[in-house]
Design goal:
Keywords: Pyridoxal phosphate. It comes from Shewanella amazonensis (strain ATCC BAA-1098 / SB2B). By secondary structure, this protein is of the alpha/beta class. The protein has two domains: 6-247, Type I PLP-dependent aspartate aminotransferase-like (Major domain) (Aspartate Aminotransferase, domain 2), CATH 3.40.640; 252-348, Aspartate Aminotransferase, domain 1, CATH 3.90.1150. The chain has helices at 6-27, 34-47, 58-68, 85-93, 112-125, 145-155, 207-216, 239-270, 297-306, 336-344; strands at residues 51-55, 75-80, 97-101, 129-136, 158-162, 170-171, 174-175, 182-186, 200-204, 283-284, 290-293, 345-348. Strand 6 and strand 7 (174-175) form a beta hairpin. The structure holds pyridoxal-5'-phosphate (PLP). Pyridoxal-5'-phosphate binds at residues 57-59, 83-84, 86-87, 136, 162, 164-165, 186, 188, 198, 200.
């Protein structure tokens, strides 16, 4: 079996996706064609925000947000240490300092208690200016936004939602992509909503950020791309990817139901063997990954392998353990929960076309 069965999905949607791709080949507007605007409207409607702005990938989406928020050298931006590298990378890329935060042992998401501790530490040290928080909806589960929003407000920080894995998740009927000041997602093929290459998007209700990001994604354009009023980047979603995403977004609600069914079944069968994922009351996960905790992870992975069942380790290395961030001088004892997770988690196959068998 496949870890993520993109071929099964394509088989299911083939006629519609093929027709959408053919339409692009015929009209030939490969950059910012009509499918891009159509997708942005449908994404904004689905997520429940005023503006959805597509771009080249999820990392660029975060970079554009850092630029729009004016994150710069001397700023501290708080993010979980247990995440994919891009979350922390975009902070350092702007010359700012990533300040890592430990995880909640049950949800694997950023721990609000440790976040507040880290903010107070930065304030006490007086070297960096606390500027923003990037929370991550890890494995599809929205972070604890009710608590994070309180902390952001108390300390005057911007709150960014990295929903690269979280698209489709919910807290009390509010969808992932609508939390914080501004949110991002990724359409990398393995994400809950993936295209056939790279893609990403930014979501916000703020007209000012939206206008700024629309300019920044096309070389800091003013009236047009030959009128450059600021330094930006080149980060657009290809029309072909937008065409694919339009059909995948239409099928997404049904896939989300299937993913949740599969997760429920996993939990029913496995909760007596491993520590299975916790979904707090009122939360819905989009199950980017179904991740369990096992003390002897390697033995479990070998057992699955012998049965032809693929597994993956997300993530075996925390941000504070990455060579690129060695100079920040963190130790495992600074993040006991995340360091333990990196040694004990593994993920099982998960996609929208799983069969009971
Ligand atoms: C995948 C991912 C990204 C980056 O998305 P790309 O489209 O691969 O650039 C950022 N943050 C998290 C948490 C991710 O999982």
């Amino acid at each position: 079996m496949q870890f993520i069965d993109l071929a099964a999905q394509y088989k299911h949607l083939k006629e519609k996706i093929d027709a959408r791709i053919q339409a692009v080949l015929e009209h030939g507007h490969y950059i910012m064609g009509p499918e891009v605007a159509e997708l942005e409207d449908k994404l904004a409607e689905y997520v429940g925000v005023k503006h959805a702005i597509t771009c080249a990938n999820g990392t660029d989406a975060l970079t554009l947000v850092m630029m729009a928020l004016g994150i710069k050298e001397g700023d501290a931006v708080f993010c979980p240490t247990f995440t994919f590298f891009a979350t922390a990378e975009v902070i350092a890329y702007e010359g700012a300092t990533p300040v890592f935060v430990d995880s909640d042992a049950d949800t694997f998401n950023i721990c609000p208690l440790d976040l507040e501790k880290q903010i107070q530490k930065v304030i006490a040290e007086g070297k960096l200016k606390p500027a923003a928080i990037i929370a991550v909806d890890l494995f599809g589960l929205p972070a604890n936004y009710p608590e994070l929003e309180k902390i952001a407000k108390q300390y005057g920080l911007k709150l960014v939602e990295d929903a690269a894995q979280g698209f489709g998740g919910e807290i009390e009927d509010k969808r992932a992509g609508s939390f914080g000041d501004i949110a991002t997602t990724s359409f990398f093929p393995a994400k809950p909503l993936g295209c056939y290459g790279d893609g990403g998007a930014i979501f916000t209700n703020d007209d000012h950020y939206a206008e700024l990001i629309r300019s920044l994604r096309v070389h800091g354009k003013g009236k047009d791309k030959y009128d450059n009023i600021r330094v930006g980047m080149n980060s657009r979603l290809d029309t072909l990817q937008a065409a694919v995403l339009l059909e995948k977004l239409a099928a997404f609600p049904q896939e989300l139901i299937s993913r949740n069914k599969a997760a429920k079944r996993y939990s029913r069968e496995l909760s007596s063997i491993y520590k299975t994922p916790v979904t707090p009351v009122g939360y819905l996960s989009s199950w980017a990954q179904y991740t369990v905790v096992a003390e002897d992870r390697n033995a479990e992975i070998e057992m699955y392998k012998s049965k032809g069942i693929p597994t993956m380790i997300y993530y075996g290395t925390c941000m504070h353990q990455q060579t690129a961030f060695e100079a920040l001088g963190y130790q495992d004892s600074d993040f006991p929960v995340a360091s333990r997770l990196a040694k004990t988690v593994f993920s099982l196959p998960m996609h929208g076309y799983m069969m009971d068998k």
